[in-house]
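quick one, three chains, predict together pls
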Amino acid sequence: MAAVELSGICKSFGGFLALDHATFSAQRGEVHALLGENGAGKSSLMNVLAGFYAPDAGSIIINGNTCRLAGPRDAAALGIGMIHQHFKLVKAFTVAENILLANPRNGYREAQAAIRREIRAKSEALSFVIDPDRRVDTLSVAEQQRVEILKALVGGADILILDEPTAVLTEQESESLLSNIRDLAVAGAAVILVTHKLQDVKAFSHRVTVMRGGRTVNTLDPLKTSTEQLTTLTVGENVEIPSRIFHERGGPRLIVSHLKHRANAARVTLDDVTFTVHAGEIYGIAGVGGNGQTELLEALCGGLVVEHGRIEITGDVADKPSDITKASPRQRLAAGFASIPADRHAHALASSLSIADNFAIGHIHEGRFGSWARVDRHAIWRATNAAIHNADVRGVRSLSQRASLLSGGNAQKLVLAREFSRFPRILVTHSPTRGLDAKATAAVQRWLIEARNEGVAVVLVSEDLDEVLGTADRIGVLVRGRIVAEFAAPADRQAVGKAMVNHV
Amino acid sequence: MADFLVNWISSIPGLALPYALASIGLIIGERAGVLSLGAEGLMLVGALVGVGTVLRINDPTLGLLAAMLASSMVSVLFACLVVFLRVNQVIAGLSLVFFCQGLTNLVGTMLDWSNRTIPGLGLLPLGSLGALPVIGPIFFRHDALVYLLVPIILFVQWLLTRTTFGLRLRAVGENPDAADSVGINVSLYRFFAVVGGSALIGLAGAYLSVVSAKIWVAGITGGRGWIAVALVIFARWNPWRALLGALLFGGIEALIPQIAAAGIGLPQYYLLMTPYLATLAVMVWQGLKNDTVSDEPEGLGKPFVREERR
Amino acid sequence: MSETSSATRSSSEAAPFGSPVGRRLRYRPRLVLEIRESMPAWQQFVILALSVLCGAAISTAILVWAGVPASELLSEFVNTVVDEQSIRAVLTQAAPLILVGIAASVAFQARFWNLGIEGQMVFGSIAATAVSLWHVGPESLRLLLMACAAVLGGLIWSVIPALLKLWLSVNEIIVTLLLNYVATYFLYDLLYGVWKDPTDGFPHSQVYASGERLPDIAWSINAALPVSLALMLVVVWLTQISRFGVYLRFIHANVAMAMRVGVPVVTTTFGAVFLSGSLAGVAGFVVSSGMEGRLSQGFFEGYGFSGVLIAFLARNNSLVAPLVAVLVAMLFVTGQTLQIFYQIPFSMVQLIQAIIVMCVAATEFFIRHRINLRG
């Protein structure tokens, strides 16, 4: 009897069909990987299984019984525990309080003692020692993840769903986690591993189900399937990965020296960051999220004024570098800066405003679209139309439609179109392909390489090591707010991965 | 001089009490994540119903209880708007204040409850204790509600920090997503937190009319509800610190008549401005301190919807 | 609080993952809340209109309870568009309401909750009255100087909350509200003190000279109305045509993004707040000089929330705001009539406004969300 069996699951959000008669089943004693690229529907399917989403159609069979889940609590009662990508922990509470919240026990005082006993018992299964009275916001990301798993185990979960668990971990931490959950599976649990990382699938799972476009494509044995076969199934067609052509780089364009910043008295976010990016090169910054990427980007784009250090830009070798450390975003834009932030709907686009507005705002200060007294709407429409066509932005019914209606890939193309239309000299990007499918990812990477070929100095910060390895000319590894190592392409994956581990 | 001090200090608890109760009522709601600006309105409702009940049945205790019930009922309107209909909490709070102002004025006029003195709630007779010099008037010549204030705070603090109910309520305020994922009904907790807290806010208003002034007039709350909202931030969402803030503001308010009584010739209206200026000063001071670790419930003010794509 | 299922797991110490105990779930249909992608504008307008009517209906019920026959109520309200006297009253009343409506709209568009409109009106009037009482400038220019002073007065009173928000991140909701009280007491101090009318000893200033009052123009309509409409056009130009308006729209939509793309957020916000304060100051001047003819107590009452209501219904659009302002003016005039003939306190108007805002806000829910019953 399968632990879980999902069949014919359909789910749509507004007009978007996320799941199209998807099926899935998992057994006890196995790690079953659910593989697919971004937007394939893996997370949505698991959210249905765990009771977060109500399916429009289809059936859920758990331990042989057909179920209708009214909410996450019902799923938890049946032994399903889901560990999301974005943890559902109350940061201000302690570990014990968080676990108690999820697993109510009678009486407050007795509950405290009882929950600690249970935490200790389950910690052994996870080989994870934690002081239950520590506040969650003092724990590292890997530790918080373990707490989430503990929460599920204490609740008696024996069907565990982990959604992209290694996205936020270093290579070492990932290995440790995945081998732990493999042990859990061997001990009798059904473990579902939602991931897009082929190497994790091959190394740690017993079976793999591939999803694409909201449908289940196939279920296979990872040991008997090659990486190429898996890739083809996942991606569905042959997508050209832009090849790297050697490009002669120019003189230094962006000089970052000794940036230091603290978020507060206790936390140092930038600890002497130093690197130089030349014109016509892509400098990739690799590292697990939370090591100062956000702060570094904010410092580069003008959202943060660092306590120490300098950021300078130069035109040609002969020119004196100009200091932009304290410049406003406006001034940086005028100096030739462009940025593609990670969260496009929060930082790059005004979702409720029109596509035309979102494009025009890139140029409006320079006076390209009319004077201060009167904005030239016709000029905006013409320019936006041209940009949309050049960038191949799909899904535009009218230029006055809201930007939020664009899908991830098209929204990113709009952002790129806007930033590139200013002919920038320095381009700073953070996870530009996050949440995009393979086609859009390839398109974005092509843009970056083209920019580099035109002589732009590109900074690519990404938590996706493969992306950095594939696109960058030089790689800096950011650990705890400091560039600890630099590599030139083609870089050795193992060496870079090793450098990413926290030094003591 | 000594007389002045004794008179001043002994009048503080009575004036501090409305601020304290209103702040604590707000804290309960805000710890659950609901920002309520409607305190001024709810206090008016409590004040009116308190007086009205006493005019009808001449029992101040029942008057206070009726006030608590009435303001809870009115807050149901606000709670439904904000919790279930996800209305912007600022707009809903503002509307509630003006709704209550208009409604209480109308009802007060229609039912002829305005401008009529009532016997109200008297001091709790503590006999010879009250006759002691200095500490007598300061500690032992108050009404029952003042003596109940500390037990109320103890109860609220116990409820928030030492019960499962409190744990869940705080979770709803800090991370409603997390609370929802473990099966806590976020909407219901927020609803009851708001309505329950409003009972205390109504009591604060009723104290003003039934105990302090022993009369109802339009606008009797005079902005104290807004000051209470500011006090919650000053108190960093902790009931004991709210009491401290209330004593501070009670102290300032108590100073005004004492200065007039002592014959010190300060311009009347500038004196009346002092509580508001003091609140502004407190807010500026908070802003200057620039706390890096905030005690503010993380989910405060944001409506909660579970199925949100992207 | 009850959980959605009646399960408590016994601690599973025996075997780490034994076969789970079979459990029957109480089944309940599930209410699912989804966010709509968009709704056509006409549909939104219909819903808005219906909600306003709903609010009006509730208010009517309350008034009937208070002793006003429903038929009378209807005829009074209709009167305001039919009877010449009433129409004039409505148009006169509309002038300051237009100004506070756009004052609130501009500030809210910059994400600044300017609830201190009443205080700004007070200082606007005080400044204008100072010009009158101190005989500043030649008489022919006096009215214009009073208007300019009013602009400055309102502007100055809006500086404090703006600075506090932008420098110290102090929440402007409480600050602006508290400053209203401070302004009121400052006014009382003047009216009961140095500016008390020497002729009758009442707490209002002496009457403005004839050249210091906004005159009535064609059809006995006060000049305040064209002044308000002219200012409205200026604001419409600023917010819909000029670059400032584009910046404002981005600040309203997404401040973080606006900063990133180089929108001058701080300058624009300050500008919007100062504009808001200035408009409120002019509104105060318009009431004092156009309607009352002197500085008096309580002339500003009711305008603060009216501004919020107008901005809310007009969705911060300065072109639509005057239309809503006229409706609110009709409400004011009806309220005054009710006060005279039925002894209904004027704060009833506030009650009706609050009910309408709550109805409209409640229906926003249905515009933004969709409810499905999942079986």
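The interface with chain A takes residues 162-164, 167-168, 170-171, 174-175, 177-184, 292-293, 298, 306-307, 309-310 of chain B (CB under 8 Å).
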